[in-house]
């Protein structure tokens, strides 16, 4: 009976003193963080202007030709990677009759500057016929220029012709 009382007293003593089972625990904390990039704006700042064309005589505008080449200004998050994608029309349409004048673009008809180049000496060349991935400049801006060629037929109706060229610029997340 004495052994039983000793065991019972020892058990009670262990419960009251909170004897541990020998395990240890440590914790570490990190934060979940994210930076939301600034919104982007894309604005057409100059039309691709072929001026006067002669029936039966193709006319080209080079991307380096200030005042005639098409131009967009992109403002966004500095040094962010973007995809640029052109929606190119196959022809210009007469403003009244709807007659078409073929319009074409070569793989080197577009260029850009991220702030380290100019229209006459761009940062790089873009293929307007497919999407391209480039970086917005460290100053948060990007300029894109485009040229092309119209090919009026010998019987092309006189008057004004036009078509929309759309540039879509999308952050890649990189």
Mean pLDDT: 90
Q: Major β-sheet, in short?
A: 5 strands, antiparallel
**What spatial order of strands do you see in the largest sheet?**
1-3-10-7-8
Number of helices, counting only DSSP H or I runs of 4 residues or more = 1
Radius of gyration: 34 Å
How many domain modules?
Answer: 1
Q: Could you state the order of secondary-structure elements as H and E?
A: HEEEEEEEEEEEEE
Under CATH, the topology can be stated as: Immunoglobulin-like
Count of extended strands:
13
Low-confidence segments, given as residue ranges, are: none
Task: Please identify, by name, the CATH architecture.
Answer: Sandwich
Provide the CATH top-level class.
Mainly Beta
SS class: mainly beta
Whole-Å distance between the termini?
Answer: 77 Å
Structural features, described:
Helix content is 9%, strand content 34%. With 174 residues, the chain is mainly β. The protein has one domain (41-171): Immunoglobulin-like, CATH 2.60.40. The strands form three sheets. It has a five-stranded antiparallel β-sheet with strand order 1-3-10-7-8, with no helix packed on it. The termini are far apart. The model has no long low-confidence stretch (mean pLDDT 90).
Quick gist of this model?
This protein is mainly beta and 174 residues long.
């Amino acid at each position: 009976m004495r052994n039983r009382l000793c065991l019972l007293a020892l058990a009670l003593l262990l419960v009251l003193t909170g004897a541990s089972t020998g395990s240890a625990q440590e914790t570490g904390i990190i934060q979940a963080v994210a930076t939301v990039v600034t919104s982007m704006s894309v604005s057409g700042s100059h039309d691709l202007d072929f001026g006067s064309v002669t029936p039966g005589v193709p006319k080209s505008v080079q991307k380096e030709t200030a005042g005639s080449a098409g131009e967009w200004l992109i403002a966004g998050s500095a040094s962010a990677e973007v995809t640029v994608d052109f929606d190119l029309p196959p022809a210009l349409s007469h403003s009244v009759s709807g007659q078409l004048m073929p319009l074409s673009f070569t793989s080197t008809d577009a260029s850009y500057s991220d702030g380290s180049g100019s229209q006459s000496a761009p940062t790089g060349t873009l293929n307007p016929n497919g999407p391209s991935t480039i970086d917005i400049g460290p100053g948060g801006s990007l300029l894109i220029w485009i040229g092309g060629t119209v090919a009026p037929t010998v019987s092309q109706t006189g008057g004004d012709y036009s078509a929309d060229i759309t540039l879509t610029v999308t952050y890649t997340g990189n």
